[in-house]
Amino acid sequence: MKRIFIDYEKCVACKACEIACAIEHHPDKSVLSLVGDKKAHSNVKVIAVENINFASSCRHCDPAYCVDACPSGALKRDRFMNAVIVDPYMCKACAMCAMVCPFDAITFKKTYNSPFGRDHAVKCDFCIERIKIGLNPACVDACKTKALVFTDSESFVKSKEKADLKSFLVGHSKEPANVKLFKELKKEML
Amino acid sequence: MKIVTVGCGMAAAEFVETLRTNGSNDDIVMISNEPFIPYSPCSMPFYISGEPIDTVFWKGINFYKRYNIKTILGRPVTNIAVENKCVEINGSDRIFYDKLFFASGSRSYFPDDNWLNIAGVFGFKNLQDILVIDNYIKSEKVKRAVVFGGGFIGIDAALSLWKRGLNVTVVHRNNRVLSQMTDQEGGIYATEKLREKTGINIILKSVVKNIIVDSGKLKGVTLDNGDSLAAELLIVTIGVIPNTEMLGVNTKGIEVDFDLKYHNDVYVAGDVASTKHMITQKSGVYATYPNARSQARSIAYDILFNKNLFRGSLNTNVLKKHIEFPIISAGYFEGDPYTYCDEEIFRRIYLKDDQIYGYLLVGDTSISGFIYNLYISQKKVGNNIMKFLSLKRGKAYYIQALSV
What we know:
The complex is a heterodimer.
Chain A: E1 2-6, H1 16-24, H2 31-34, E2 45-49, E3 52-56, H3 65-69, E4 75-77, E5 84-86, H4 96-100, E6 107-109, E7 120-122, H5 128-132, H6 138-142, E8 148-152, H7 153-170, H8 177-189
Antiparallel strand pairs in A: 1-8, 2-3, 4-5, 6-7
Chain B: E1 2-6, H1 10-21, E2 27-32, H2 45-48, H3 63-66, E3 70-73, E4 77-81, E5 86-89, E6 93-96, E7 99-102, E8 106-108, E9 121-122, H4 127-139, E10 144-148, H5 152-163, E11 167-171, H6 184-197, E12 201-203, E13 208-214, E14 217-223, E15 228-230, E16 233-236, E17 240-242, E18 254-255, E19 261-263, E20 266-268, E21 273-276, E22 283-284, H7 289-305, E23 317-319, E24 327-331, E25 336-341, E26 346-352, E27 355-362, H8 368-377, H9 385-389, H10 396-402
Parallel strand pairs in B: 1-2, 1-7, 2-3, 7-20, 9-16, 10-11, 10-16, 11-12, 18-21
Antiparallel strand pairs in B: 4-5, 5-6, 8-17, 13-14, 14-15, 19-20, 21-22, 23-24, 24-27, 25-26, 26-27
């Protein structure tokens, strides 16, 4: 099953993913429409912990705490991608899901999909409509440093394990030289 | 095998769905005194605030057909003979079972049974209540409502009536609303937030003593301090009684161990079950949906695979519907408190032996899931907890992960 992965060593916190996500989920599909639009939202968020930054979003866990907690039938697992999807029509914004999500991947907002003019649970929908027509999720396509990748989870985890072992044994860093330089400069500036 | 459920609520629906999705072809009969498809008590107040009724049926409107279930609806179970494995309906009909899933739910408690005969006085526990309240508001053009009891259900009711545009007053016995799921300070903070951000009047340290009736209809209430309030609608939410009489039990819930068995082939779940707490092992009725769900699933797995997965219930809850400042709580407010508080956020965590014993988070959900996982895993956190308390969105998990 394909999943979105983030290589935090490559992330430079440019937030292109956030903007691409917001455009993708905006009815106008245009960056200009986002300006000052309170209903616009991004399902991915770049966060910084000390000197490390990375894009963070829903991991579509399986089993998922949020799906198990939902008392209104709004959070369901999609059969095509095994993704956790929220149905705004059924969602009552009761926050049972957000109460248990360890990654804080669920927020509440009034969006263009709100059927009843109030807030509802908002989370990553995996850009399923894009995937169905053979595209990548919007955040992955927008990532300039290829920190975000959309790939088969099993083979990715295996190759990551190999690479990590290699870098541990021979001290070889996967970090591209230019990204490394950028981060060093950023540290200097802080 | 013939599997019978008494009740068609959330626990029973979850139980039946788990059986069917795990390949059970058994005969399943669901019995309830209510005439409905399984509905969500979490969703139903939204019908009062104007959202469509189909959103209440959380497992879909074709539930019974989809899972090939026989139903006996709108007829009360009057007795259960566990030795004969027999459910008696309406005092006459008998249904025999191999396994019984007992989840008959609970009903509103009224301080005076005569109130039930007055038009305009309602409970707020089942879908019937909701439909009748909605109808009454329309037909009597109700403008003012009093909600007696400011617990979770009371505030839920008050918020949905307020959203509908009614003038709502909550009368509550304690010095703060939601007194079961808050400690003193946090509860007062939450009460003030509710006052400030909604138009609901909250009268504390008071109870409704009497009702004022004119030609069979409610006209107002009098409080214990002698004040009276004019109102056409009174919602009574001062407590619930588990429907356990048909099993011949009159206690507060049917006490069961981790196997959730009342008798060899009788399981109990949901609002009627008095189960062990996951952390404290204290028995009690933990009547929230996640508990009903885990109990129902454990019972289904026990029947299908002889595997008991139940590890106890949790007393977690969150109030967020209609408001933008979620009130989240879990556990018990004992031990050493660690607090973070600003204009919009109140967070307090109680530690015992460096483990989380209870917490209360008002204002947002950013660290709630992280804290929840620390709580259920009973990880030793110690003084480290202070560095998480003031965090903004999404960082807590990663700070913990990277600090190893």
